[in-house]
Amino acid sequence: MEGPDWVDPWTRGQGEARARALFSQTWDGEAKGVWSAPGRITIIGEHTDYNGGLSLPTVTPHRTYVAGRAREDGRLRVVSEAGDWLEGPGRTWECDMDLIDPTTAQGWPAYCAGVVWALRERGFDGPGLDLAITSCVPPGAGLASSGAVECATALAANALWRLALDSDEAHAELAEACLHAEEAIAGAPTGGLDQHTQLRCREGEALELDFSEHPPLAQHRPLYFPDYGLGLLVIDVRTAGRRRTEGFVERQRQCAAAAQALGVASLRELAGAPDARMRIEALADPVLKARARHVVAEIERVSDVCAELANTGPAHERFVHVGKQLYRSHASLEVDFDVSSADLNLAVDSAFRAGVLGARLVGAGFGGSAIALVRRAEADHVAARIDEAFVAEHRPRPRFLMV
Ligand code: GAF
């Protein structure tokens, strides 16, 4: 049996060269520049964003690249290297910018055309654009590949339209435009975690996001793990969740209903409150009770992990503690939030048996990926054990990414 299947990131140079080549093969002439955005990995804090909560994400070295050039008319033309990375109409797509709406932009073009639409809705405008998109962020892996397309497109428009939206505050504005695009044009619900991470978090750092503010407050934190020989192993179980959109909307509704039943504006208000457990357990509806239990406990876990990472105590104790919180987060997402799957549970269980510090599903769930906090020197061995577990269970073999 061959060894585990690793998805290596492109270097920035490789990604930019691919995007430029795609551009000039498709549209005559050269691109004016290339802009890129990473995938998103939530270290901890899942399904907390749309509850006004906290989350601690970081980004992947895997990025989506958009080569672009301004036009002299008002047309948008886009080519995607892999036309099948999302459902869609083939490799190229074009439209007058004035005509972009949910009926003209469907499938993958919705994610870039939607951003152009959303920026113009906010009063940011410029000439038409020619764009070429290429990506090494695996699609359907729970790593926000669609957010990466949106954010790289937003950065391209920002530069080509000379909008000078370059500060963290301005990137928060771009992130809001991207999530508006995802909801209004692509028709995919989102809570904003992905786009704020992808536009505001730099490689090698973590971002503490607080969604009680709008736009969310972002505090830049060191990633801590590399200094201690640790890393995040991503296990893509290759079952993109078909129930993802439907399940996500249902979770948003249930959380809103739980908050209403508890008499709070958002579940965030209960995190850290001394009587929170008692109030939640008193809810009559068992589903709302379970959803609220996950959200409140997950927000508390984010605070706890942030404090533990910033702590100066003995490293082994701190990281063992962080790892336990990752396992708890997974259990809560599986049992109380009901967004795990047999493959994700197998990924987490086999990672545990291979001796990782902690593991949990990442992103919305319903398929996608799990992450494991591993000693970098052991990553190959851990990936091989997880791979064997999937083969033994006759399931599709996972793909692995190292962050
Ligand atoms: C998806 C959503 F798009 C995010 O907003 C977030 O809710 C995440 O699922 C779960 O934490 O990626």
TrEMBL record:
Keywords, in A-Z order: ATP-binding, Carbohydrate metabolism, Galactose metabolism, Kinase, Nucleotide-binding, Transferase
Gene Ontology molecular function: ATP binding; galactokinase activity
InterPro entries: Galactokinase (IPR000705), GalKase_N (IPR019539), GHMP_kinase_C_dom (IPR013750), GHMP_kinase_C_sf (IPR036554), GHMP_kinase_N_dom (IPR006204), Mevalonate/galactokinase (IPR006206), Ribosomal_Su5_D2-typ_SF (IPR020568), Ribsml_uS5_D2-typ_fold_subgr (IPR014721)
Domain GHMP kinase N-terminal: 111-196
GO terms classed as biological process: galactose metabolic process
Gene3D superfamilies xref list: 3.30.230.10, GHMP kinase, C-terminal domain
Source species, domain of life: Bacteria
Galactokinase N-terminal domain residues: 22-69
Limits of the GHMP kinase C-terminal domain: 318-391
GO cellular component: cytosol
Family: Belongs to the GHMP kinase family. GalK subfamily.
Protein name according to UniProt: Galactokinase
Species in which this protein is naturally found: Demequina activiva
